[in-house]
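Teaching assistant's notes for section 4

Start the section by putting this record on the projector. Ask students to predict, before seeing the second block, whether Protoheme IX farnesyltransferase will look compact or extended. Collect guesses on the board.
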Amino acid sequence: MSDAAVPHDKEAGFGDYIALLKPRVMSLVVFTALVGVLVAPGQIHPFIAMTAILFIALGAGASGALNMWWDADIDAVMKRTQRRPVPAGKVLPGEALGFGMALSGISVVMLGLATNLLAAGLLAFTIFFYAVVYSMWLKRSTPQNIVIGGAAGAFPPMIGWAVVTGNVGVEAVLMFMIIFMWTPPHFWALALFMNEDYSKAGVPMLTVTHGKKVTRAHVLVYTILLIPFAVGAAFTSIGGPVFLAVSVVLNGIFLLGAWRIWRRDEVMAAADKYAVEKQVFKFSLLYLFLIFGAFLAEAALKPYGLGGW
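Reveal the predicted structure now:
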């Protein structure tokens, strides 16, 4: 992709480079990685823990910058993304590429020096998976892009766990699987009311290739598949009665929303401007924060003999 592909209106400002990092996505990465650090067994100095979170955040930002460099052409077409720094002409594609590569190297090397090679390796693989496997390959080639590509967003709590323990336990895998199974219904709910954007950009989202009826069924199926992992985590060392109660309630609400989406046809959805789909999408964000917040609650209660089983 050449710098000439996108008009360059003016010199990029600090805020434009911050936008390249996808701060909204980064906030989720930071939070879930922090949960992984705080619930993992073992001790770690608070300064090392915060340093690790900083470098994990930089790695997530690097992925975002590389994604914006590669996707500048389709971002310019989609209403939701056309104001991003590269398609808006504020940052040249080459600048975004260089910025992303630099942050990738810094974040991986420094995380390895500050903690351990496993954590650094997982971060490196996460950046590679999001930038290359998802952005460059899956996103434009298969309607299963969100399903497989969702693994990139599921690694942060596993990295956080590895920072403390130097290994990957069952609990880390379960946290990974919660995010991995949550990602498809979360994004497909969005795709149902943003379908025109994906169609114009030529992105083979499930709504474009198989239609909204099939997508609605997939939202329900993946929400059902999510539940065993989200509830099952309650019976591990990072779970407990508080987590179980929160998980049952949240998964019940999520399942009800997915069922409502599945029952609707396009006439019903268009009549209320996809209100249900928008509600489920917004709730899915709250769902993930509360699920991981419940892990934190259990960890906070354990010193008082109240958390866990």
